[in-house]
Amino acid sequence: MTKKVLVVESLSEAAIRLLQESCQVEVRLGLSPEELLQTIGDYHALIVRSGIQVTARLLASAKKLVVVARAGTGVDNIDLDAATRRGIVVVNAPTSNTVAVAEHTMALMLCLARHIIQADGDMHTGRWQKRHLVGTELRDKVLGLVGLGRVGSAVASRARGLEMKVIAHDPFVSPDRAAKLDVEMVGLDELLSRADYVSLHAPSTERTRGMIGARELALMKPHARLINCARGDLIVGEDLVAALREGRLAGAALDVFVDEPTIDPALCQCPNLLLTPHLGASTEEAQQGAARQVAQQVIDVLEGRTPRYPVNVVAVSHKELEFLEPYLVLARRMGMFYAQLAENNLSHLELTYVGDIAEHDTTLITAAALAGLLGEASEEPVNLVNARLVARDRGLVVSEVRTPQAQDLSDSVTIRAQTTSGTRLLSGTVIRGQPHIVRIDAYWLDFVADGLLLVTEHVEQPGVIGQMGTLLGQEGINISFVQVGRQKRGGPGLMVVGLDDPITEETLARVMTMPSIRSARVIRL
Fold first, then answer.
1. Alpha carbon 53 to chain centroid, angstroms
2. Within the chain, what is the greatest distance between any pair of CA atoms?
3. Nearest CA to 44 among 303, 422, 358, 310?
4. What is the tens place of the pLDDT at every residue in 45-102?
5. Domain 451-525 is of which CATH architecture?
6. What was the pLDDT predicted at 351?
7. The CATH number of domain 98-275 is 3.60.60.10
8. pLDDT at position 314, please?
9. For the chain, N or C: smaller number of CB within 10 Å?
10. CB distance 479 to 435 below 8 Å
């Protein structure tokens, strides 16, 4: 079935063409909240920018929705908790506007330093006045960055190019990272008291909302300037207006506001305050880049692949994701295999990672295994986003063990499932990029975890494999491979048969009549 994508805010034609290669795309701009609410139920993907509010109420009506994509960086307009609870992946384009926002920050800083806006206004009214427009150089000035993420780091490198001294406050940046950027890490109060320019590059959280208020502004130098290209609610607006009106701050520049596109009239009437309408990401390059990034991620999610920039899934670098991708496929297939093999209630799932894979963050791999396992029995969609929540809701205890030193098998994933009747075990690995299951309980074997499989338990004796081949051949079923594991000659054995053709219940019943067969089950991966 062709997936349907709804685009409700502007997106580049190139991105729409990319989506149209594999999806049915509808562009409907200007929808009211109620119109969107009535429409969303038909779509598998929703693409927005910053103008549409993706609320819990909207998501509750989106019965088919798999992914919400924000063509930009911030996701403040998306209810992440509601999306996560419903198993909806949220993606964005965090790297697309880094350069654009950093350059806009520098542009605002230069405008404040050299009174560019006032000078332009004077010239357009026929006034040639220089005396009151004497500016300052940025060279040797102290720039204080509140937040040293992608944009903050990009601003730091540009400021260093202008020979500024850069200090920063960010409790989540390591000393090594700061040293590489040639940035001195300090506390927030020290930053505010030392900086000639303060630029905000922090997210909007409970901790950061209103982080620059009357107390913080009082710490700043009278000749200092404040710039905000991050989130509007980081600054207490009335406190900023008061500081500017009373001459306690030389100037400020805002590109973001609390309730966009509404602007507080007090800000518009404030002296020495430069305002731009959220232009940080408004470059052709940034918007095209964001559109391409989210379009590709929408396709990836709809086709069952891991998106590059998930917001409500554990985020990993692109390089790390390339390494993890085959293990994500392996873990999901192992979960699916176990779910179709199991007969008893599951209480505890332990995932053991052995070898090089144990040196990596395995959170996503565990989520993939849970998605494969629980998706077989859950009425709601289970995926990388909500797998742990579904497991918790089901009372399933999940744990991880990492063992870098390999013993029986290197770079392997093992699932140990504690059930009401005992423990079951499943081990797998990646060989030439393909997911292989190599152990089922006490039986060692090796087969690609893909397609249609017939799994039987039998008593080991001559002719078992031949009898199985003959029976399936009589039914017109082609065999792609046979793998057999045993504990000892004449003892119990396990056989996995790869099938190229569907097997009927009648044929399965015939398999069960074979004298040596103790159980038979069809597994679809």
1. 19
2. 104
3. 303
4. 999 998 899 999 999 999 999 999 999 887 889 998 899 888 899 999 988 889 999 9
5. 2-Layer Sandwich (3.30)
6. 96
7. no
8. 67
9. N
10. no
What Cα–Cα distance (Å) separates residue 293 from each residue in 181, 321, 370?
27, 15, 28
Distance CA(521)–CA(525), nearest Å, equals: 13
Contact (Cβ atoms closer than 8 angstroms) between residue 15 and residue 295: yes
The residue among 425, 432, 428, 426 whose CA lies nearest residue 410 is 428
With beta carbons less than 8 A apart as the criterion, state whether 225 and 212 touch.
Answer: no
**How far lies 154's CA from each of 98, 101, 236, 330, 386, in Å?**
7, 9, 26, 38, 34
Q: Where does 3-95+285-302 sit in CATH, by number? A: 3.40.50.720
Phi, psi torsion values for 66, nearest 5 degrees: -110, -35
Could you tell me the two tokens for 156?
A: 């730091």
CA distance 209 to 236: 8
**What does each C-alpha distance from 43 to 8, 12, 115, 312 come to in angstroms?**
12, 20, 49, 20
Asked whether 492 and 458 are in contact (CB, 8 A), the reply is: yes
Question: In angstroms, rounded to a whole number, what is the distance separating the alpha carbons of residues 164 and 195?
Answer: 11
Structure tokens, 394: 């089901």
98-275 and 315-450 agree in CATH topology: no
What radius of gyration do the chain's Cα atoms show?
A: 30
432 catalytic? Reply is no
Give residue limits of the domains in the chain: 3-95+285-302, 98-275, 315-450, 451-525
Strand residue runs (E) in 52-173: 67-70, 89-91, 142-146, 165-169
- Catalytic annotation present for 278: yes
Average pLDDT over residues 195-205: 92
Backbone angles phi, psi at 509, to 5 degrees: -65, -35
Task: Catalytic residue, from 231, 333, 388, 436: name it.
Answer: 231
510 an active-site residue?
Answer: no
Catalytic residue among 150, 160, 177, 278: 278
Confidence category of residue 4, pLDDT binned at 50, 70, 90: very high
3-class secondary structure per residue, 457-490: EEECCCCHHHHHHHHHHHCCCCEEEEEEEECCCC
Q: Which of 103, 190, 260, 475 is catalytic?
A: 260
Q: How far apart are CA 235 and CA 224, in angstroms?
A: 16
Task: Among 251-265, 305-319, 407-421, name the one with the lowest average pLDDT.
Answer: 305-319
CATH number for region 315-450: 3.30.1330.90
Q: How far is Cα 184 from Cα 200, in angstroms, rounded to an integer?
A: 16
CB 458 within 8 A of CB 516: yes
DSSP code, position 99:
H
Written as six digits, the tokens of 434 are 């393909």
Residue 362, both tokens = 């395995």
Residues near 151 by beta carbon (within 8 Å), at least 6 away in sequence: 98, 101, 102, 105, 201, 229, 230
Instruction: Tell me the angle at which helices 284-302 and 98-114 cross, rounded to the nearest 10 degrees.
Output: 150
User: CB of 228 within 8 A of CB of 237?
Assistant: no
